[in-house]
Specification:
The chain has 3 helices and no strands. By secondary structure, the chain is mostly helical. The protein has a domain of 41 residues. The protein starts with 8 loop residues before the first helix and ends with a helix.
Length: 72
Amino acid sequence: MRTTVNLDPDVAAAVAELRRRHALGVSQAVNQLARQGLRVQPAPARFHQRTAHLGLQLDVTHVPDALEWLGG
């Protein structure tokens, strides 16, 4: 596919560096950089446990009593 694109200066510099290091054409360098970007996996969202105050206070220092109170 033929198209015209405008590269930001940092992207143009990366293309130029890749071309220089590997003796590539512009299209080859842009395709290689695009493929590298497609392979990057975003970091998974950090898990955050939501809590809600229920107004309940339970002393669990004595587990059998706590279980009995909970109905277990």
